[in-house]
Fold:
Amino acid sequence: MKIYDFLKKISRCFNRLNIPYFVTGSVASIAYGESRFTNDIDIVSDIKIENVPNILECFPEEEYYISEESIRNAIYYRSQFNIIHPASGLKVDVIIKKKSEFDDTRFSRIINFKLDDLGVNFSSPEDVILKKMEYYKEGGSEKHLRDIIGMIKISEELINFKYIESWVSRLYIDEIWAAIKDRLETRKD
Structure:
């Protein structure tokens, strides 16, 4: 199985079950920016307890690793669970939607892309950038900054910079945003 086959599988499942979701993380940054290797998919979803049996049906245990207890705990604690395809080594991190203004806003800004014949929900490029700055703040990994620079380089005309500016102070990532803008200015010189 290839990563986009796995993405289509989970999207078909969530679309069929009417579970709100969007793709974020490295797969989304690749969609808006530069290609790089990844073997995981990050999805933010508003899964409810009543969805659990149907999700388990979508990913049979003969082919996938998925834990009912992990799903239930993720919903209860508003954390995340994994769906793993052991034969390929691919993994989906399903992050449960937080009860926050930012997550509410991210869900209101979903962009639907066509992958073959399937509509797949993606985070807006601005929200991918904001989350990547948060991830950088948490872990310091340069890959997040490279992804952001690549997204801006490739999709600058699609990006609403005023929207990003409206969130950076509320998310306490002002300094990271300033550093990114400095890097972009240095590249132009």
